[in-house]
Amino acid sequence: MFDCEHRERLDAETLETVLGSLLSCYPEAPVAALKQDGILVAVPASIPLLRNRALQARSGLDLVVQEDRVRLLATWDLVLSKGSGRCLAHLVERPDVTIVFYGLDLREAHGVVLVLFAPAPADAANGSAVRVPRAPKPAPRFATMHKDERSFIVKIDDALTQILGWSAEEMQGHRSIEFIHQDDHALAIDNWMEMLACQGPGRRVRLRHRRRDGSWVWFEVTNHNLLDDADHPCVIAEIVDISEEMAAQEELRAREQLLDRLAEAIPLGLFQVDAAGEVVYTNDRLHAILGVPREASAHEQLGTVVEADRPALRRAVDDVLRDGRHTDVEVELRLPSTQELRFCSVSLRALTREDGAISGAIACVADVTDSARMRDELKRRATFDELTGCYNRASFMRALEANVADARAETERAVMFVDLDRFKELNDRYGHAAGDELLRVLGERLRETVRGNDLVGRVGGDEFLVMCPDIGGPDGAMRLAGRLARTLHERVRLTAGSVIPQVSIGVAWSNCDGVDADALVAQADAAMYQSKHQHAGQPKLARTVTDLSLRRASPRASPRLHRRSRGGSPHASS
Question: What is the pLDDT of residue 209?
Fold first, then answer.
């Protein structure tokens, strides 16, 4: 079986028969199981080993000495292509003993390639017992061709026959251009005419030549003009087969084209800079995002970034080019054509040479305007009341707690609880839409009337809170509360009619750094009820909170903030 030439691959049944015969002949020969890539694996239990020892190594090549590895690779290719193969070898563990390497491709039945190392026959030293596969002789790369003054071929050497497959008789008497690719004719003719104009070697030219099987091979041709030679007037063409070089260039060109197509297809702007920050590459998407054509440097390329974000961006570019520090930064830019503000994420990554030196950087620029605006919108909704634009309950209480916690000793503040009187009557008479419209007006009036550093929040259907840091004592707090009451009492013209609202306002003031936010709100809430019971629409000042004993005694405000709005519309309270 191993002595025969197999035109077709051995089938699984035949290989199983050969396996049984080998194990029967060599029941103690060491074996190994390998994957297709030559890496050793455990011998499957389905293979009926006898007393055969399984060898251990990383790969099949590691089992044999260095001198045998090229021969073993040739046999391995034969095993994978035809199903079986055999060669002489020397195991690393016994380099002085010649053995026979048998390989069987049992992947179809057992999932592995099995190799068996059998004792070599006595005459194996001279190779007569085992036919060793030989690597094919490499084709020549250099050849010559002789042509007359009209470019007819008069002689070729054996190397050219081996490369092209044409015999000398088939090529002689034909013009050389008949064997050149049509797309290269103009270049070949121009080179020939240039060569004829002077004696000696002409300019080298790269041309595709047709093989006898119809395929094409790249040659680098140098024509030597010896037509004035009295003894041998001719043109001698020195030919070099550069197919491998051209294939490598074609592969490189294909990769560059792939990368270029990918760079243009992805929805990101890309630009590359060298170590000095000079731009060496940009894609079309970058210019669409930034709104500017290609510029000379990274800082000029990102020149549409707003002034406030430029220092952070400049630091990021400098860091990646100086220290190789990867950086992601979000910036805002203004499009020159429309003056529209956009948000972009810029990711900078360093490029390095083999020695670790920074050779430049690549930047990815993504338009994140939609996500940035959505993020701001979510933040706004989490912070502000949708109906009135005032702070919502949670964000107001956080701000008040932060003010109380961060305040210096004896820093004063006031909290005002504002409640709209007879809101249910308004809803019943004009409808919930009118109630919402009134709440929007009152919220706007509150924000316009308070000071710049004051905070207005809506904490219920018709309830508002106002935080006033550094108000100027209880008197200053009451003056502002009175101004709020008068402003809110002014007539409001609604779509459904005209109303004069009245509010009840409770004021709590404190200069104690230990008071908590809930205590202040509870004090203001209680004072608001006193104002409401008087039916006069006048603010009421709660007992001032000036020590920790009042904070401990004060009722908690949180439960009251969760109560249903007194007379408020369900819609307005949502």
Answer: 96
Of the candidates 487, 488, 459, the one whose C-alpha atom is nearest the C-alpha of residue 400 is 459
**Residues 366 and 391 reside in one and the same domain:** no
pLDDT at 130 over 70: no
> In the prediction, which pLDDT does 129 show?
45
- Residue 122: give the domain boundaries: 12-126
CA pair distance 209, 221, nearest whole angstrom: 11
Residue 378 lies in a domain: no
Q: Give start and end residues of each alpha helix (H) in 127-242.
A: 158-164, 168-171, 185-196
Sign of the C-alpha dihedral computed for residues 34, 39, 40 and 46 taken in this order: negative
506 touches 525 (CB < 8 A): yes
d(CA 58, CA 97): 22
pLDDT at 561 over 50: no
CATH code, domain carrying 94: 3.30.450.20
Residue 4 lies in a domain: no
Is the distance from CB of 235 to CB of 194 less than 8 angstroms?
no
Q: How many helices (H) and strands (E) does the chain have?
A: 19, 23
Q: Residue 409 above 80 pLDDT?
A: no
DSSP for 268-318 reads: SEEEEEETTSBEEEE-HHHHHHHSS---SBHHHHTTTB-GGGHHHHHHHHH
What spatial distance separates the first Cα and last Cα of the chain, rounded to whole Å?
Answer: 89
List, for residues 183-217, the tens digit of each pLDDT value. 999 999 999 999 999 999 999 999 999 999 999 99
Please state, in angstroms and as integers, the Cα–Cα distance from residue 371 to each residue in 266, 342, 367, following that order.
Answer: 18, 11, 9
